[in-house]
Design brief:
The chain is α+β, with helices and mostly antiparallel strands and 387 residues long. The chain has ten helices and ten strands. Strand 2 and strand 3 form a beta hairpin. Helix 4 runs antiparallel to helix 6 and helix 8 crosses helix 10. The chain is globular and about 80 Å long.
Amino acid sequence: MADTTFLNWPFFTDRHRALAAAIERWSAANLPVGHSDVDAACRNLVAHLGADGWLAHTAPDPQAPNPQAPTPLDVRTLCLMRETLARHDGLADFAFAMQGLGAGPISLFGSTEQRAWLKRTRSGAAIAAFALTEQKSGSDVANLAMTAERDGGGYRLDGEKTWISNGGIADLYVVFARTGEGPGAKGLSAFLVPGDISGLSVAERLDVIAPHPLARLKFDRVRVPASAMIGAPGDGFKIAMATLDVFRSTVGAAGLGFARRALDETIARSRSRELFGGPLADLQMVQAHIADMAVDVDAAALLVYRAAWTKDSGAQRVTREASMAKLFATDRAQHVIDRAVQIHGGDGVRRGHIVERLYREIRALRIYEGASEVQKVVIARQTLAGA
Ligand SMILES: Cc1cc2nc3c(=O)[nH]c(=O)nc-3n(C[C@H](O)[C@H](O)[C@H](O)COP(=O)(O)OP(=O)(O)OC[C@H]3O[C@@H](n4cnc5c(N)ncnc54)[C@H](O)[C@@H]3O)c2cc1C
C-alpha cells in the first residue's frame, strides 16, 4: 500500500483526497492492462477512462454555462491522477496524460467551435495528440520548419513531425507550423487538424524502450480552414509554452508515481527476502538505500504539488516551479528505480518484473516536454532574473 500521508499536506482539499481514493480504487480494480498491442491497449484505455468519467479532468467542459470563461484545469487533480495511474500502469498514465496535453491548446486558447472537440476528448470518443517536435527542432522549438501557407481562405500545411505520441491513432492533432509573422519563435501558429484529413500520413512508427503509440508524421498539402487556427497568427510558441506550463508538473507527477511504486516494491522485497540469516531490510546498507529513496519521493512530491498548487491558486505562469518539479521528480525517480533494481538483485533485471518495467518507463520522462538540461536553463534564467 502506497504512502498516502502526503494527502494531508495543505496543498489539497477534501475534494482532492476523495479523488485520490477513488482513482486508487479504480486503478487497483482495472490495471495493469496488457501491453502486447499498444495501439489497441491505448484505444481501450482512453475509452475506459472516458466511460468512467476520469477524462473529464483533462479539459474544461465546453458545455459549461460560460464557455468563454471555462473552469481552469485543476493541476493538482491532473497530478494526483497521473501519480496514481503511473504507480499502477505507465500506459494508463500515458493514455490519460495525452488527452490533456493533446487537447491542452484548445482548452486554454480554443474558439467556441474548436472547444466542441473537448466534449469528445473528455468522453474518450476522440484521441488527442500534440505535434510540436520535428527532426531538427526538438529542444530548439523555435527552429521548426513545417510551414502553413495561406491557401485561399485557409492554410496549407507541409512538412514532417516526429516523436508524436498517439501518432497514427489520434483523432485530432494540435499542430505547430511556421506562418512567418516574425523570425524564429515569433512566426509560429497552432492548428487543429483532424486525424483523418487528406494529406496526413504516418511516415514511420517509432519503437521505444517503454512502447506506446509513437510516430513520425508527414503533412503533404494538408488543407485546413482559417478557423482551424488556435489563437492568433504568430501565437503558436506562446500557446505551446503555456500548455507545457500546465502539463510539465504532471510529468513530474508521473515520475513520482513510478518512484513510489519502486519504493513500495523495495520495502516488500527487503522484508520478505531472507539473506545472511535475516530479512534484507535488516542490512544497514539496504536501509541507507531505502532512506535515500524515501527522501527523494517526499522531496519530489513537495515540488510537484507546490507547482500544482501555485498554478491552481491563480498564478498566470509557473514556469520556474513546474521546471523544478519536472527536473527533480523525473531525475530522482530514475535514482529511486535504479536502487529498487539493485535491491531486487537478479530479479530486478528480469524482463517482465515490475521494477524492470519501471526502469524502462521512467527514462523518456527526462527527455520529453523539455529535457532535464533545458529545465536547468529555464530555472537558472528565472532565478538570475529574480535575483
Ligand atoms: C517517448 C517520447 C514521446 C514524445 N512525445 C512527443 C509528443 O507527443 N509531441 C511532441 O511534439 N514531441 C514529443 N516527443 C519529443 C520530445 O519532446 C523531444 O524528444 C525532446 O524535446 C528532445 O528533442 P530531441 O529528441 O530532438 O533531442 P535534442 O533537441 O537533439 O536534444 C538532445 C539532448 O541534448 C541536450 N540538450 C538539449 N538542449 C540543451 C541545452 N539547452 N543545454 C544543454 N543540453 C541540452 C539534452 O540532454 C537533450 O536530451 C517525445 C519524445 C519521446 C522520447
